[in-house]
Specification:
The chain has 238 residues and is of the alpha/beta class. It has helices at 49-56, 79-89, 105-110, 121-134, 150-162, 180-197, 231-237, and strands at 7-18, 21-33, 38-42, 64-69, 72-73, 90-94, 168-172, 200-204, 216-221, 224-230. Bound molecules: adenosine-5'-triphosphate and magnesium ion. Residues 16, 18, 25, 43, 45-51, 206 line the site of adenosine-5'-triphosphate (ATP). This is Putative ABC transport system ATP-binding protein.
Length: 238
């Protein structure tokens, strides 16, 4: 594949101190993530998956090493520029949904459009409705979170992450609160977004059943990449 990577980490090191002990969580990781693909990071609990996602999305600065995202070196950006980078280029999906309970699905998805350049209300509603239709919830837009199933709530959270059409979509354990059927639907949506919109989709998952739906699977152990496989090779190996 000749696509240019949209996300490049080089020699990423990150440690955390608690009391007198210092734990190295990312141990010199280098990796490049391509647009138009769903890349999944897997590995044991505590292996550094969420930390890697935070570093690659600029939520956390590494102790050393660099991240280039959409051609920008994140450590060179000011705090304000980093906030702008995330607002403009990044969408985030987490396992807890984080929806506002008093707002309808549509209102939840409209929220991110209040930040950044002002857009016409009718245009915003059209875009939010389109994002909900993309995740198969076109007939649920007036419902509140308590009236939605877990899988539907997660799809609202994905629609909210997508409404600004981010170039980079980060998803930390987006399926862990879901049963396998709903987990599969969510993974299919993430895959579709990567393929149809050319989005760079980087997910973290515990769920080994989801691996076969990814284009690429990167395995972390003790803060290092121990395996990096493409879907085609995984099938051949099976
Ligand atoms: N802010 C922090 N302060 C101190 N230690 C931290 C911090 N964030 C993470 N850690 C430690 O870093 C290690 C890796 O954490 P991380 O959340 O990246 O793991 P993970 O692979 O996502 O695990 P899980 O699968 O359980 O979500 C853990 O041992 C954790 O305790
Ligand atoms: Mg984690």
């Amino acid at each position: 594949m000749s696509a240019t990577p949209t996300l490049i980490g080089e020699q990423l090191v990150k440690s955390f101190s608690s009391g007198k002990t210092r734990q190295t969580v990312l141990n010199g990781i280098s990796l490049s993530i391509l647009p138009g693909e769903l890349t999944l990071i897997i590995g044991p609990s505590g292996s550094g998956k969420s930390t890697l996602l935070s570093v690659l999305s600029g939520l956390l600065l590494p102790d050393s090493g660099t991240v280039h995202a959409m051609g920008m070196e994140l450590s060179r950006l000011s705090a304000e520029a980093l906030d702008r980078f995330r607002l403009e280029y990044c969408g985030f999906v987490f396992q807890g949904f984080n929806l506002f309970t008093s707002l309808t699905a549509l209102e939840n998805v409209l929220l991110p459009l209040n930040y950044g350049p002002k857009i016409d209300k009718a245009v915003a509603v059209r875009r939010a409705t389109a994002a909900l239709e993309l995740v198969g919830l076109g007939n649920r837009i007036k419902l509140r979170p308590m009236e939605l199933s877990g899988g539907e709530k997660q799809r609202v959270a994905i629609a909210r992450a997508l409404v600004k059409e981010p170039k980079l979509l980060f998803a930390d354990e987006p399926t862990s609160a879901l049963d396998s059927h709903n987990g599969q639907i969510v993974i299919d949506i993430l895959h579709h977004i990567a393929q149809e919109h050319g989005t760079t989709v980087l997910g973290v998952s515990h769920d080994n059943r989801l691996i076969k739906h990814a284009d690429r699977v990167i395995t972390l152990e003790d803060g290092a990449v121990v395996k990096d496989q493409r879907a085609r090779n995984m099938l051949e190996a099976a």
